[in-house]
């Protein structure tokens, strides 16, 4: 788990200032499952919950997201893995159709 926060002060003309605060956190977990196959060694299901609020004093601008995914670690001599995720966003005020699926194949040289 990690929590992030920041406060920024903006100077405006004629001596006026504006202060902006933002906050967020995330919690994630994964578990490695050993697989007795010649080509695949580890299957790692993962889940993550994150929340971001650009201005805690303002209503309706907070966004939460849940990500579920899996990492496939291939045999060590191949030095590669495959990652696939589905991320579901939940906007506080105006729901958007912005969920996403991502996949990545990683090779180490």
Write structural notes for this entry.
This protein has 109 residues and is an all-beta fold. It has one domain (2-107). Helices cover 0% and strands 66% of the residues. Strands 1, 2, 3, 4, 5, 6 and 7 form a seven-stranded antiparallel beta sheet that branches. A hairpin with an 8-residue loop joins strand 6 and strand 7 (100-107). The mean pLDDT is 91.
Write a concise synopsis of the structure shown:
The mean pLDDT is 91.
Question: What's the structural blueprint in terms of helices and strands?
Answer:
Layout: E1 2-11, E2 17-30, E3 33-34, E4 40-53, E5 63-74, E6 80-91, E7 100-107
Antiparallel strand pairs: 1-2, 2-4, 3-4, 4-5, 5-6, 6-7
> On the 0-100 scale, what is the average pLDDT?
91
Task: Report the β-strand fraction as a percent range.
Answer: over 45%
Put simply, the count of helices is: 0
State the end-to-end distance. 31 Å
Beta-strand segment tally: 7
Helix fraction bin: under 10%
Instruction: Spell out the helices and strands N to C.
Output: EEEEEEE
Task: Tell me the structural class.
Answer: mainly beta
Q: How many domain regions?
A: 1
Instruction: Describe the largest sheet.
Output: 7 strands, antiparallel
Large-scale geometry: elongated
Low-confidence stretches: none
How large is the radius of gyration?
Answer: 20 Å
Essential attributes:
single chain, about 110 residues, mainly beta, seven-stranded antiparallel sheet, 7 strands, about 0% helix
């Amino acid at each position: 788990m990690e929590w992030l926060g920041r406060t920024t002060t903006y100077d405006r003309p004629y001596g006026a200032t504006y202060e902006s605060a933002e906050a967020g956190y995330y919690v994630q977990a994964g578990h490695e499952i050993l697989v007795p196959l010649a080509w695949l060694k580890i299957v790692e299901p993962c889940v993550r919950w994150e929340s971001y609020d650009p201005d805690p004093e303002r209503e309706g601008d907070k966004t939460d997201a849940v990500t579920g995914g899996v990492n496939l670690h291939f045999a060590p001599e191949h030095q590669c893995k495959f990652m696939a995720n589905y991320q579901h966003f939940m906007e506080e005020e105006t729901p958007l159709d912005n969920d996403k699926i991502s996949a990545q194949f990683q090779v180490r040289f």
